[in-house]
Amino acid sequence: MSVPAEPSFRDSVDLMFNRAVALMDLEPGLEEKIRVCNATYTVRFGVRLRGGIHTFTGYRSVHSEHMEPVKGGIRYATGVHQDEVEALAALMTYKCALVETPFGGSKGGLCLDPREYSEEELERITRRFTYELAKRDLINPSQNVPAPDMGTGEREMAWIADQYQRMNTTDINARACVTGKPAHAGGIQGRVEATGRGVQYALREFFRHPEDVKAARLSGSLHGKRIIVQGLGNVGYHAAKFLAEEDGAKIVGIVERDGAITSESGLDVEAVHGWIGRHGGVKGFADGTFVEDGAKVLEEDCDVLIPAALEGVINRDNVSRIRARMIVEAANGPITAAADEVLRKAGTVVIPDLYANAGGVTVSYFEWVKNLSHIRFGRMQRRQEEARHELLINELERLSRDKELGWTLSPGFKEKYLRGADELELVRSGLDDTMRTAYQAMRKVWHSREDVADLRTAAYLVAIERVSASYRAKGL
Ligand SMILES: NC(=O)c1ccc[n+]([C@@H]2O[C@H](COP(=O)([O-])OP(=O)(O)OC[C@H]3O[C@@H](n4cnc5c(N)ncnc54)[C@H](O)[C@@H]3O)[C@@H](O)[C@H]2O)c1
């Protein structure tokens, strides 16, 4: 099979968008308005470090403001560039629309390798970057709300929130300027695990539909499925851990920067993660086979391949050797448009990034709402639930006491029953519901339209329809 030429990441996203748009009846001109990035800001700023002045380059791209605030992570990596942040910002627009979080799309990045800086240096750089973005409202609770991405996490989000609050001391909503903060600094339970948890919920939902499982030339449940994961960072670690520990899947390969580790009997994800934390890579991990050329392990036979590191890792050079029955895009853009075309023709099922990794933005939305409502998340729901359920329990207790029932309520039942869901349970159930609903919206299009052959096209169709409805309703 001939493989098409390789486009850039930005062009890849546009090509996927165009494929869906060709199947729609959009008003002339609206298609281009949705596709293009509204604006990308480039900033260069200096920070005094190690006795000298170091200049850093950062970006914040705003793809679509059909809903505000716009939302998207901040990435720290040496390869960050304009094309990349624009592609990622566009994906955020479509992702938010698909999972119905009321945000437009944005993304940012800073060109640096965080491993080369001390914590104190990173804090100074992050605070300065925050200042540069915030003074142009590119960080702002009602206009632009960043979150973690590759190379950043709770720590950086706490610095961003604190810096923004110092610059806006009278803004009572200042904390909502960024999500992914630590729980004790305005964050929400379950945000750190959210993207990996969402990958697990996406796979669970996929396996609830035998017809879809058959399309991937698989059968049965997730139990015992052989999975290879690339990148054991925030997203890959949580996805692999939950799938192995809670669904009985077997992680037969983990691909990292320095190589890969494989084991047919299944890797202990926690142990590999701990090893990477102590040694900086998978090399030397005893309970598995080390493979120096890690990228080769992506080509190994498996049921599910989960790329959870970088974009473009499945491309025109290796796509013909990919043997996975299905691929879940936990990373953004891991499959190029050229490779996607080959996989589609080969019948490999791809669960697309704009759906598969939407768990992060979904729980970010819960965090943002929690910050703006200034109430501990769950308290309102618990009070309402309690009031309703207490009526029922009281009646059951009366019937039980009066021996009108053939059984009695066990001691402590009422307290246990009324305990209500805590924040983590609420977050997880909200995420689960979101992932199920969005999957069903995609699969309806996938199965009901003859001209839609894959989940990615279906996902774009649903997302673009929603973005265009928003523009039609409010005007341009
Ligand atoms: N963090 C989130 O909430 C979130 C949300 C949605 C999407 N994503 C996407 O998920 C992907 C991973 O993000 P993350 O937050 O887990 O990042 P991270 O920095 O926590 O982890 C990335 C992991 O990939 C590994 N890695 C880097 N280069 C590699 C290579 N060449 N080969 C193999 N492994 C490599 C790193 O060592 C690290 O373990 C990105 O595409 C990101 O955009 C993240």
TrEMBL record:
Is Nuclease one of the keywords UniProt gives this record? no
Q: A Pfam family in this protein?
A: ELFV_dehydrog_N
Give residues annotated as binding substrate: K71, K95, S364
Question: Where are the coiled-coil regions?
Answer: none
Is Oxidoreductase set as a keyword in this record?
A: yes
Kindly give the PANTHER family that the UniProt entry links to this protein.
GLUTAMATE DEHYDROGENASE, GLUTAMATE DEHYDROGENASE 1, MITOCHONDRIAL
Q: What is this protein called?
A: Glutamate dehydrogenase
The organism is: Tranquillimonas rosea
Q: What is the lineage of its organism?
A: Bacteria, Pseudomonadati, Pseudomonadota, Alphaproteobacteria, Rhodobacterales
